[in-house]
C-alpha cells in the first residue's frame, strides 16, 4: 500500500511538472498576471499584423511567420525592399519591451526604438537608438569591436560582459525606456544603463557616427524596429523573433 501511494505521488508530481513544462512552452502568449500589469503582445505568433516595413505599407517579402516566430530570410540578390527593417504600426514613448531572438551563424541585426518614420529619413537608424544583435564571435567586425557587440547600445556604449548565446540558440532582450532612462538586459543580465537627452548624452552622440544625423535619438516616442537590412552572415541569412511584448510605463 505504501509503495502504491508513493508511486501515485510520484506520478502526480511528474504530471504537475509536465503541465508546467507545457505551459512554459506556450510562446507568444500573456499570462493573466501580465495582462493585469498592462502587457500587450506585439506579435500574435501567427501573422505580421501590426507590423510593416519601414516607409512601406506592408512587410517586405523576406519577412514571414514560421513555427510561431517572425522569420527574416534573405539572399544577397534579393531586392532591398524585401528585407527592409520591420517596424511596428504603433508608436511608444515610455515602455518596457521584451522579446526573444536567434540567428543563423555570423548574422547581424538589432532592435531599435524611438524610430521616426518620415520620407526625410531613409533609414531607421537615422532616428532610432539600437540594441545590437550579433553572433558570439564570428560576426565580422561587430563581434570583435566594442560598442558593436550583442547587447551594446550600438556605436555608443559597450556592455562590460557579452551575455549572448551562440548562433542557433534563443536569446532574451529587454529594453526599458522611462523618461529618457534607458536600460538594456540580455538573457537576464543588465548590460546598459544610461540617460538620454542630457548634455553628456549629446556629447556622446557627437563623438559617434550618428552625429551625421541631427535628429538621431531626439524623439521621445516612436516605432519599435527589427533590423533586416544588415548583410552579414551565412547565406541565406536568417533571423527569428518571438515572444515580443510591451508594457507602457
UniProtKB/TrEMBL annotation:
Gene3D superfamilies registered for this protein in UniProt: Exo-inulinase, domain 1
UniProt lineage: Bacteria, Pseudomonadati, Pseudomonadota, Gammaproteobacteria, Lysobacterales
Keyword Signal listed: yes
Entry-linked Pfam families: 3keto-disac_hyd
Keyword Ribosomal protein in record: no
Signal peptide limits: 1-24
Species in which this protein is naturally found: Dyella nitratireducens
Protein name (Swiss-Prot/TrEMBL): 3-keto-alpha-glucoside-1,2-lyase/3-keto-2-hydroxy-glucal hydratase domain-containing protein
3-keto-alpha-glucoside-1,2-lyase/3-keto-2-hydroxy-glucal hydratase domain residues: 38-247
UniProt entry keywords in alphabetical sequence: Signal
Amino acid at each position: 500500500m505504501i509503495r502504491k501511494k508513493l508511486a501515485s505521488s510520484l506520478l502526480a508530481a511528474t504530471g504537475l511538472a509536465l503541465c508546467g513544462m507545457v505551459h512554459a512552452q506556450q510562446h507568444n502568449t500573456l499570462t493573466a498576471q501580465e495582462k493585469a500589469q498592462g502587457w500587450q503582445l506585439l506579435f500574435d505568433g501567427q501573422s505580421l499584423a501590426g507590423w510593416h516595413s519601414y516607409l512601406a505599407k506592408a512587410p517586405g517579402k523576406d519577412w514571414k511567420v514560421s513555427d510561431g516566430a517572425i522569420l527574416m530570410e534573405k539572399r544577397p540578390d534579393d531586392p532591398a525592399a524585401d528585407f527592409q527593417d520591420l517596424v511596428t504600426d504603433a508608436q511608444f514613448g515610455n515602455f518596457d519591451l521584451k522579446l526573444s531572438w536567434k540567428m543563423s551563424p555570423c548574422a547581424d541585426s538589432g532592435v531599435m526604438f524611438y524610430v521616426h518614420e518620415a520620407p526625410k529619413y531613409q533609414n531607421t537608424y537615422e532616428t532610432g537608438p539600437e540594441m545590437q544583435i550579433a553572433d558570439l564571435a564570428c560576426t565580422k567586425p561587430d563581434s570583435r569591436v566594442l560598442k558593436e557587440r550583442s547587447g551594446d547600445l550600438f556605436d555608443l556604449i559597450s556592455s562590460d560582459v557579452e551575455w549572448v548565446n551562440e548562433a542557433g540558440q534563443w536569446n532574451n532582450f529587454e529594453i526599458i525606456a522611462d523618461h529618457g532612462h534607458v536600460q538594456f538586459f540580455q538573457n537576464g543580465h543588465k548590460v546598459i544603463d544610461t540617460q538620454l537627452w542630457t548634455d553628456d548624452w549629446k556629447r556622446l552622440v557627437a563623438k559617434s557616427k550618428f552625429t551625421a544625423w541631427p535628429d538621431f535619438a531626439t524623439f521621445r516616442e516612436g516605432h519599435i524596429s527589427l533590423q533586416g537590412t544588415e548583410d552579414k552572415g551565412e547565406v541565406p541569412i536568417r533571423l527569428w523573433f518571438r515572444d515580443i511584448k510591451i508594457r507602457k510605463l
